[in-house]
Amino acid sequence: MGTEQAAAVEISEPLLHQDEAAHDKITPVDGDGEEFERIPEWKEQITFRGLAVSAILGTLFCIITHKLNLTVGIIPSLNVAAGLLGFFFVKSWTGVLSKLGFSTKPFTRQENTVIQTCVVACYGLAFSGGFGSYLLSMDEKTYKLIGEDYPGNRAEDVKNPGKQVSSLGKYLSISFIWSCFKWFFSGVGDSCDWYPADLGSNDFKGLYGYKVFIAISLILGDGLYNLVKIISVTIKEICTNATKHQNLPIVIEVAVKNYNDTSKLLVEQKKRDKIFLKDGIPFWFAASGYVALVAISTATMPLIFPPLKWYLVLCSYILAPALAFCNSYGTGLTDWSLASTYGKIGLFMIASLVGSHGGVLAGLAACGVMMSIVSTAADLMQDFKTGYLTLSSAKSMFVSQLVGTAMGCIIAPLTFWMYWRAFDIGSPDSPYKAPYAVIYREMAILGVEGFSELPKHCLAICCGFFVAALAINLLRDVVPKRVSGYIPIPMAMAVPFYIGAYFAIDMFVGTVILFVWERINRKDAEDYAGAVASGLICGDGIWTIPSAILSIFRINPPICMYFGPAASG
């Protein structure tokens, strides 16, 4: 048996390493004499056109992320859209230059992977930067919205931030035109004032308080369940892999002996491993980079947020790598990043430690530290996996992540400034309510003050919804998969409690369309649903740019519509 395994390796080794000195060519595994494509060096994978396209797409996706952050507060994965649009832009670029008579370098999958990595890093800062959550929670408008006399809501805890490609393209256009059409119809909506007579519709001592805290309890229940679940899955997977590692040679032996195709897969895997590990990042470089960032943050963050002492920043950075590992591994297993949940853990811990004198501001700032580290780690791990599958260099992935992050540091604030100038951000009557700004600030206040100041019976109701979130998640995992698809996700249920039903209606309409599509043609639905969804999201997001420009120049929609009771005339 040992001989058979050695023979398999012997046959495959020359195919893999025909020329050990030349790393840019690898011969085939099928032995038919046809060579694989040339694998570019890591520096060749990072091109000027790729970075230019990354900057354009990074700007677009920052705008889309801000819009989703400020309206519904939930950000779907836009990696598919980034990859498709990157492919579309560069292919268009090379096509136009070729017709003009210029010679162009061929567009490789490695270059497309670099573009995707750079774009994800760029728009990731629009999310983890807290522009729709913890950063806005420090704003004076959010402070006043909660109520200046609300217990634990102190004026000192305010920090003003400053005044498939054809399907994707088609539905992007449709979504853009629809958003443009909706702009022509402006309405104030209707308000159901069934609160006590002496309370405003946004008073946390009335119904508004119940709505916000019910949403918080559902979010925390869902986050806690998934956190425990992912940690359990992670530990189980690590233990299983440790057991399997001892038996791995036997499994490979049997596979190679019984299935000829498996040996080809093994050789292919070796090839991927070699290319991916060839340009590895030294441990000392990663460690020294992290230590440098810790030093910079520990020195500067207390200057920006005085209640957040330097030793609290240092503790956050010491704890963050362990949480980043858990989140990265969990995201790989479940395709669900819990960065915001880890951020809430930091928020509660620091807010309660600091107490009433600056605990809200310190907790929100610590939430930002935790979210930025944990979210970036998970994004990079996903990009590394994509790079591994596309035979891209790990070093080019890392460099593109750095470039994308640098772009995001400039693009994310600038695109947010566009929203800030053009729209009434954070107002309950605005389309851009920034729901998570209020929720995060209330969480921080809760961490400082405890439960004593909640509205009457609010704690009991919230406990009920918290337990319900745990039970619903458990039920989703226990029942068969065909049934679990009809059980709602508590996190998605929480958002309409605060922002209203319009988002839920949109989601329901999309679900019905996808359901009918799957019944008519399941294969097409599986192949194109992601591209269609990406196109709709991108089209709606792109419309924000002309809408913001019109708003800045005070150009109002030409049609105003109001829906109300007949008696109101």
TrEMBL record:
<keyword id="KW-0812">Transmembrane</keyword>
<dbReference type="GO" id="GO:0035673">
    <property type="term" value="F:oligopeptide transmembrane transporter activity"/>
</dbReference>
<feature type="transmembrane region" description="Helical">
    <location>
        <begin position="281"/>
        <end position="304"/>
    </location>
</feature>
<protein>
    <submittedName>
        <fullName>Probable metal-nicotianamine transporter ysl4</fullName>
    </submittedName>
</protein>
<feature type="transmembrane region" description="Helical">
    <location>
        <begin position="46"/>
        <end position="65"/>
    </location>
</feature>
<comment type="similarity">
    <text>Belongs to the YSL (TC 2.A.67.2) family.</text>
</comment>
<keyword id="KW-1133">Transmembrane helix</keyword>
<feature type="transmembrane region" description="Helical">
    <location>
        <begin position="458"/>
        <end position="475"/>
    </location>
</feature>
<feature type="transmembrane region" description="Helical">
    <location>
        <begin position="495"/>
        <end position="517"/>
    </location>
</feature>
<dbReference type="GO" id="GO:0005774">
    <property type="term" value="C:vacuolar membrane"/>
</dbReference>
<dbReference type="Pfam" id="PF03169">
    <property type="entry name" value="OPT"/>
</dbReference>
<feature type="transmembrane region" description="Helical">
    <location>
        <begin position="72"/>
        <end position="94"/>
    </location>
</feature>
<dbReference type="InterPro" id="IPR004813">
    <property type="entry name" value="OPT"/>
</dbReference>
<feature type="transmembrane region" description="Helical">
    <location>
        <begin position="310"/>
        <end position="333"/>
    </location>
</feature>
<feature type="transmembrane region" description="Helical">
    <location>
        <begin position="398"/>
        <end position="420"/>
    </location>
</feature>
<dbReference type="InterPro" id="IPR045035">
    <property type="entry name" value="YSL-like"/>
</dbReference>
<keyword id="KW-0813">Transport</keyword>
<feature type="transmembrane region" description="Helical">
    <location>
        <begin position="208"/>
        <end position="228"/>
    </location>
</feature>
<feature type="transmembrane region" description="Helical">
    <location>
        <begin position="114"/>
        <end position="136"/>
    </location>
</feature>
<keyword id="KW-0472">Membrane</keyword>
<feature type="transmembrane region" description="Helical">
    <location>
        <begin position="345"/>
        <end position="378"/>
    </location>
</feature>
